[in-house]
Amino acid sequence: MDPLDVLADAAENLYPARMQMALSLGWHIIFSCFGIAFPLITVVTEWLGHRRDDAALTALAHTFAKAMGVLFAAGAVSGTLLSFEMGILWPRLMDRFGELFGFPFVLEGFAFFIEAIFVGVYLFGWNRLSPRAHMLSALPMAVSGMAGAFFVVAANAWMNNPTGFALDAQGRITDARPWAAMFGPSTWPQVVHMLLGAHMVTGFTIASVYAVGMLRGRREPRHRAGLLIPLVFAAVITPVQIGVGDWIATTVAENQPAKLAAMEAQFETTAGASLSLGGIYSDDELRYALEIPYGLSLLVHHDPSGVVLGLEEFPADERPPVNVVHLAYDTMVALGSALLLLAAWFGWSWWRRRRIPGTTWFLRAVAVSGAAAVVALEAGWVTTEVGRQPWIVYGLMRTADAVSPAPGLYLGFYAVVVIYLLLTALTVFVLRRLAHSGDTAAPQEVDATTPDPSTGEVAVR
Fold this sequence. Notes:
- The chain is mostly helical.
- It has a domain at about 5-255 and about 400-440.
- It has 14 helices and ten strands.
- It has helices spanning about 5-50, 55-90, 90-125, 130-135, 140-160, 180, 185-215, 220-255, 255-265, 295-300, 320-355, 360-385, 400, 410-440; strands at about 165, 175, 270, 275, 280, 285, 290, 305-310, 390-395, 395-400.
- A two-stranded antiparallel ribbon has the order 1-2.
- Strand 5 and strand 6 (about 285) form a beta hairpin.
- Helix 1 packs parallel to helix 14, helix 5 packs across helix 7 (about 185-215) and helix 8 (about 220-255) crosses helix 9.
- It is globular.
């Protein structure tokens, strides 16, 4: 085949390959969060049930375990698709950097199999193992889930800051050090950010399901615990996540200044740079934004006079799509801040009265917090991935140079759309059936948590 024809095919394939990868990653990352955090929430609930000899908590843990198994199965399907897509869509990436980039994926495979084994042990060990042995079987499941996340995020961190090798005169990899590559400058900030984000998504999403039920009149102890336990996890982690965000910003400023400039839509290199909220980037200028004087310099350098590089420092063909990155970043920050306020509201009420806030507005806020956490997670990953463009490996390989020239990638994209639609529908159907079976298993109680018709308040202890 003529090399020019190969280049033309690759250019035509770039859009469907990107769309297929974005869809697969965006779908899978949600289920990954449950695989990381749901085991810990489930086993803590089971432990509380045994410790207090509380049948309602034990039944809740059993329900959590069933939902966890369903979500794990869905995540396993999407994860398998992703492993094939890396080689099918981006063969030149794997050909040039496979000895470095592939290593953490091999380790992630081991982590996945360990997690799958102990998911089975935990799900089928109810009433077959002693309570202590059953709870202990959840620990390898939780640890391997977090380990799998570490390996995958470490691979992504390497794409952002490639290390652990040398290049010869022809640009080929020499002196490959896979372990060093896995622990580059972006690894720990990204891993910690992802692990905390997974617990936020899982905690707020589970709590939101039970908040909707409580708004519809469900008041039995198991339902209240279903809101309270995951909400405590999410509320405790949220302020820590905000602090880790500062760590991430500093790392990006040091290693990917073009991404930071796109996140803030800053064209000119500036000392004492303002932090910009909102706005539209047009003609090398951010318009209609709310600016906090010296905010960006303080965030990045902890110095109000610190110099922040602008997009003008980089060639036009090496700048990310500014509006996409900037608005995604602002969306993540805005939703994270809203969740922080919700966590503070909950924490203040619990500290003062040992109960959740006594108003239906709090339940409404919790009911939407799950969706808000998911959108914040997706917006964060859009910031990370689109902000690296046009590079698939930062500074070394462009995304357009890594895509497969094989024909028919549009067909693959359409097939993946159909698969994920079916998988989503099936997962929702099974979870709804599970929820209905749980509803019939525990009769409702009518107690003092019924809303006051005059004030709309609800006291949930």
